[in-house]
Amino acid sequence: MENDIKILNEILNILNEEDLLDHMILIGSWAEFLFEELNIIENFSATTKTTDIDFLVPNINRPRKKVSLSRILKERGYESKTERLSKVNKFIKDEFEIEFLARQIGKPTKQEDVPSLGIKVETLKHMNVIYKNVITVSYNNLKINIPSPEAFVISKMIINRDRSEAKKEKDKISINNLIITMMDVEKNIEKLKKLYNEDTTKKEKKYINEYIERNGIPLNF
């Protein structure tokens, strides 16, 4: 665990030194870690921490000043890995895999060039709910963008149907843990309902309702 946090802190500091951190959103299980570490959700305890550290790049044309992310990370001891078919760039250090992702906008494409960073990334559907609901937190004297807890759990419910069986089960544990904790605080549930009503599409609402029914969650939007 100590080494896990060391790698997280290292990559956050590198991105900050290169003036890139402000242009990233930390997503995935490490956002959950910050929910707990910073007491963003009262009495919340994260259930999973993985060796994947994922960042969403909300605008592939930012920052305006272009950098070579591959060069920057190679100089810091990260191995650059290019997926054979997709040509997506990932970065490896020890057992950790650092990945940068983008929103799928307009014409569906599974990969996207990010000219501001000089890399190709995987694109994800249903990321607008996170894009619209980001909070900036202070951690180790750094300002870090993460999804609001409500956006995090809504997003996980939306994409669950398309995940592998193993990831579905892991996400189910994460979702249920978050919702159970949120249900103890009325304001968290109210935020969850507001986000559901205002920031999800008709299709996304359908996926959320299906997830709730399938998993017997006592939540009524």
Give an overview in words:
The chain is an alpha+beta fold and 221 residues long. The protein has one domain (2-214). It has 8 helices and 9 strands. The chain has helices at 2-17, 29-37, 69-75, 128-131, 149-159, 165-182, 186-199, 202-214, and strands spanning 25-27, 52-57, 79-82, 89-93, 96-103, 111-114, 119-124, 134-139, 142-147. The strands form 2 sheets. Strands 1, 2, 3, 4, 5, 6 and 7 form a 7-stranded mixed beta sheet that branches. It has a two-stranded antiparallel sheet with strand order 8-9. Helix 5 runs antiparallel to helix 6 and helix 5 packs across helix 8.
SSE blueprint and pairings:
Elements (H helix, E strand, L loop, with lengths): L1 H16 L7 E3 L1 H9 L14 E6 L11 H7 L3 E4 L6 E5 L2 E8 L7 E4 L4 E6 L3 H4 L2 E6 L2 E6 L1 H11 L5 H18 L3 H14 L2 H13 L7
Parallel strand pairs: 2-5, 5-7
Antiparallel strand pairs: 1-2, 3-4, 4-5, 6-7, 8-9
How would you summarize this macromolecular structure in one to three sentences?
The protein has 221 residues and is of the alpha+beta class.
Percent of residues in beta strands?
15-25%
**Rg of Cα set:** 17 Å
Secondary structure: number of strands: 9
Q: Main β-sheet: number of strands, strand sense, barrel status?
A: 7 strands, mixed
Low-confidence stretches: none
In total, the number of domains comes to 1
Q: What structural class do you assign from the helix and strand content?
A: alpha+beta
| Helical content band | 40-55%
Mean pLDDT score: 91
Number of helices: 8
